[in-house]
Amino acid sequence: MKALVAVKRVIDYNVKVRVKADHSAVDLTNTKMSINPFDEIAVEEAVRLKEAGVIDEIIVASIGPKESQEQIRSALALGADRGILVQTEDKAYPLQVAKILKSIAETEGTEIILLGKQAIDDDNNQTGQMLAALMGAPQGTFASKVVVEGNEVKVTREVDGGLQTVALDLPAIITTDLRLNEPRYAKLPNIMKAKKKPLDEKTPADFGVDMTSKQQIIQVEPPADRKAGIKVGSVDELVDKLKNEAKVI
Amino acid sequence: MAILVYGEHDNVSLKKATLNTIAAAKQMGDEVHVLVAGSNNQAVAAAAAKAEGVSKVLVADNAAYEHQMAENIALLVSDVAGGNYSHVVAAATTTGKNFMPRVAALLDVSMISDVTAVIDANTFKRPIYAGNATATVQTSESKIVVTVRTTAFDAVASEGGSASIETLDDVQNAGKSQFVSEEMAKSDRPELTSASIVVSGGRALGSEENFEKYIEPLADKLGAAVGASRAAVDAGYVPNDMQVGQTGKIVAPDLYIAAGISGAIQHLAGMKDSKVIVAINNDPESPIASIADYYLEGDLFSVLPELTSKI
Ligand SMILES: Cc1cc2nc3c(=O)[nH]c(=O)nc-3n(C[C@H](O)[C@H](O)[C@H](O)COP(=O)(O)OP(=O)(O)OC[C@H]3O[C@@H](n4cnc5c(N)ncnc54)[C@H](O)[C@@H]3O)c2cc1C
Ligand SMILES: Nc1ncnc2c1ncn2[C@@H]1O[C@H](COP(=O)(O)O)[C@@H](O)[C@H]1O
Fold first, then answer.
1. Residue range B198-225, pLDDT digits in tens
2. Is A247 a member of any domain?
3. What domain range is A160 assigned to?
4. pLDDT tens across A51-95, in order?
5. Which of the listed residues A89, A102, A115 should we mutate to test ligand 2's pocket, taking the one with most ligand atoms within 8 A of CB?
6. Mean of the per-residue pLDDT values for chain A?
7. Strand order in the sheet with B294-297
8. Per the domain annotation, does A206 fall within a domain?
9. Of A38, A167, A170, B119, which has the fewest CB atoms closer than 10 Å, so is most exposed?
10. DSSP character for B203?
11. Residue A120 and residue A138 in contact, taking contact as beta carbons nearer than 8 Å
12. What is the CATH number of the domain that holds A62?
């Protein structure tokens, strides 16, 4: 059985984000970029399924600028087998990304398709679900446990009230949540080996997908600042402030 | 054209999030219809018909919808939305986030998640980069599919409306997924995302027992909900549904008390719209100290019991 994992190149989660002075976008010049953390969890899960003998081959795909190669190489260093970079300088919106991934999944015949639950740049939380709909396939979003049994996968999902488990026919789309696993660190020999693993380069046009979205970001602003607070010296002072100043208790 | 709101419920009662969603929808257009899909959910339909500002309730009552499986719900919603609707709106809960992108893809349109402000029928604001920036997004789609952040919209009244109720007979069952089981947290405390006070604990609590011993008594005394940082959830001190943050729940209570939480940007993303923030932390350099309205430097293991006794 083959797996497809989608990885997005995003700003590193530790970096403090700045908005450009002209309010057109977030300033990404010279910022550290990484694999979206949820996608790293997705790669790790695929590698574990491969180690368990469930999966034979892991393909990683990324849609984005040429530098997204770095994120594909990181995924290969974690244990994926080969990569597909769909290169575009256009902003990649979820619907267009989902259309490209559908094409890859169908051509490659991948039965387990793993994505992150959300990309931490645009915080959309859409692509996996869109891909599932386009493929007419079932989905297990926000996964905290994945068990493949024969022709079916059981996914435990983190939902608002607790946990829900669903059983899905294959092929199925799974999106990862934080508790699914803890990704390993790539070892140096594996990083070296990853450089030799195959990486195909494509363009959206190869899949007949036009990247233009009917949605446009017309302005990006920094968030409103909270006014500075005060330091209180004791529990008594805190209780007094909450009762008499803030009037919240 | 009308606005289609997805009514969220547990087959017994309508979730309050739906009332916030209706409020957002009313800013997009005048006529609001609510779709309730579930099993034996007539009481929910009746409740939705009473909500302020709703003119019609569409009810789909079938076993296929009992567990809100995204595969089936999305087929139903996209089918209904294909009619005379300009917008499809749901709450950005795990239910809404699960099926709404499917609806958009089935309609072949893009989607806008987590809307916090409606500028006009085609223009919305939403947070990006863990709330470090706010994007204004404009869409020219024929059908506009959005989820809304419930904390950003004051709920409409649950009583006073008198919408007509229409039954939908078509049953959509994709047949490729099955509900297996669920483990839902039971609690007598208020629900986290709508509570007016939230007491949250972080990694510093150190154990599940300490959460029970230090956080819960304060929460009970204040009638508050309990929240947590990711570190506390990952360590197993509390269940996952208590995580507040960029990738957990978004809260905006009147009072948010953060004890032993450093205030990582991903945590702040979920609570920085709270009216009053209190931070209890022994490290004044923790980022939470600089965004708190009231910062008390100290050891939470002595501060929390004292606070609980003095409130
Ligand atoms: C993709 C991604 C998504 C994430 N999503 C979320 C999210 O949704 N929500 C979230 O919360 N985090 C999230 N995180 C994690 C986030 O980056 C932080 O790691 C996390 O919030 C830290 O939790 P914490 O503040 O409890 O722990 P720490 O950062 O370890 O802070 C503990 C704090 O307790 C204080 N302390 C220690 N002992 C005491 C004492 N005795 N008395 C008082 N204070 C004490 C310390 O000074 C410190 O400030 C995410 C991370 C990633 C990468
Ligand atoms: N440009 C992209 N290239 C590869 N994968 C992507 C891309 N955009 C989104 N994804 C995948 O979809 C998930 C959810 O992204 P989003 O819907 O944008 O929040 C991510 O975690 C990735 O797994």
1. 999 999 999 999 999 999 999 999 999 9
2. no
3. 2-221
4. 999 999 999 999 999 999 999 999 999 999 999 999 999 999 999
5. A115
6. 97
7. A230-232, B294-297, B276-281, B255-259, B197-201, B225-228
8. yes
9. B119
10. G
11. no
12. 3.40.50.620
Per-residue CA distances from B44 to A160, B33, B41, B98 (Å): 19, 14, 5, 21
Chain B residue with minimum CA distance to A137: B176
Indicate the helix (H) or strand (E) that contains B297.
strand B294-297
| A228 belongs to a structural domain | no
A-B C-beta contacts closer than 8 Å: 253
* Residue B201 β-bridge partners: B228, B259
Give domain status of residue A148, yes or no.
yes
pLDDT tens sequence across B127-178: 999 999 999 999 999 999 999 999 999 999 999 999 999 999 989 999 999 9
Whether residue B101 has a cis bond before it, omega within 30° of 0:
no
Q: Is the pLDDT of residue B279 over 90?
A: yes
Which residues in A lie closer than 8 A to residue B257 (C-beta atoms)? Answer: none
Burial (CB < 10 A; 0-12, 13-18, 19+), residue B244, is buried
Interface confidence (ipTM) of the complex: 0.97
Q: Is A147 on the interface with B (CB under 8 A)?
A: no
pLDDT 10s digits, A141-168: 999 999 999 999 999 999 999 999 999 9
Total count of domains within chain A? 1
Q: Which two tokens stand for residue A142?
A: 């926000």
Close Cβ partners of B239 (under 8 Å, ≥ 6 residues apart): A162, B185, B233
